[in-house]
Amino acid sequence: MNSLYSRLVLEYSRARRHAGALGAPTHSADGANPLCGDAIRVELRCDGAHVAEFGFSGESCAVATATASMLGDLVGGRGREEIEALAGRFERLVETGGEDPGLGPLNAMRALRDHPSRRKCALLPWATLRAALAGRASATTEGNPRMTDVSAPFRFRPATPGDVPAIVALVESAYRGDASRQGWTTEADMLDGQRTDPAGVAEIVAKSDGLVLLAEDDSGILACAQIETVAGDGGATAGYFGMFSVRPAQQGAGVGRAVLAEAERIARGRGCTEMQMTVISIRDELIAWYERRGYRRTGRYKPFPYGDERFGIPKRDDLRFELLVKPL
């Protein structure tokens, strides 16, 4: 059996064939496997009962990206019933390792027979495609490698003014007080006081050039992030990523990775060519987390607003913000 990362898999992953948002999709769905960080959006333009155009976007591993690239070559001109049949054949291929000439380059995924924990990565683009065709908004293959259920473990939506109290509570729980120590994003050793307040959050939610993205499940809001369009270097359009907060009990479970990937997808859709954020410069562990996701330190700093208790009460005198940037 070939290596999982065969020449063909790497070639399709790097080429990202069919990547990009469609101008006027008739169907779309968002797929996410939070534990491994894969987040993919599939958009379709259907002509009657058949797929005329396929596009995908998002951040995912080489296996998921290569599968989506190959899938785009396969589904053009096909109807839903035919695609469902192909999905079943692909499931058998990754489970048994048996060759299926009708699946073309997707046969490179036969190696997944020997890597059962990675099958969910290759199945995610298929599950997301099937969800889009069925009119469902989301999909996942996390904990369910056979695609028998394509309901996502959480869903995304923009915040409304009615969400402000819950957002404030989430942000405070993630960064302030002893309760925040349950997660790893706590700033309790650096700052006392509040991190935000209802007036500040309401102002951000109301901005016309941005939004507050929420991830939620049936228990309520799991995470939030601010996305705002700002001026980048050299006249470029940039996205600003801020107010990123994940419920402490959910930190480390992949929710944050999925939110960041979705925020980047939204920013790209708005014409942004880079994402910016500011992070307290001594937060080495957090900055390393962003660096693993493609952000770089710029060495450009902004002072911490000492004396303005709206942003907290500092416990040390060396706080400042550093700008991090990632090309989109």
Features:
13 strands; 8 helices; 4-stranded mixed beta sheet
How many domains make up the coordinates?
A: 2
- Report strand order across the widest sheet: 5-7-8-9-10-13-11
Which topology of the largest domain does CATH recognise? Aminopeptidase
Shape: elongated
One letter per element, helices H and strands E, the order comes to HEEEHHHEEHEHEEEHEHEEE
N-to-C terminal Cα separation, in Å? 36 Å
What is the overall pLDDT average?
88
Tell me the structural class: alpha+beta
- What is the makeup of the main sheet? 7 strands, mixed
CATH class of the largest domain: Alpha Beta
Helix content: 25-40%
CATH-wise, what's the superfamily of the largest domain?
Answer: Gcn5-related N-acetyltransferase (GNAT)
Taking pLDDT < 50 over at least 5 consecutive residues as the criterion, the unreliable ranges are: none
CATH architecture of the largest domain: 3-Layer(aba) Sandwich
Instruction: Count the E strands.
Output: 13
Q: What is the overall number of helices?
A: 8
Sheet-strand content, in percent, reads: 25-35%
Describe this protein's structure.
- The protein folds into two domains: 7-152, Alpha-Beta Complex (Sufe protein. Chain: A); 156-327, Aminopeptidase.
- The chain contains eight helices and 13 strands.
- It has helices spanning 7-15, 62-75, 80-96, 119-134, 164-175, 198-206, 255-269, 284-291, and strands spanning 27-33, 38-47, 50-59, 138-139, 155-158, 191-192, 210-217, 220-231, 237-246, 274-280, 296-303, 313-314, 320-327.
- The strands form three sheets. Strands 5-7-8-9-10-13-11 form a seven-stranded mixed sheet, sandwiched between helices. A four-stranded mixed sheet has the order 3-2-1-4, sandwiched between helices.
- Strand 2 and strand 3 (50-59) form a beta hairpin.
- Helix 1 packs across helix 2.
- The mean pLDDT is 88.
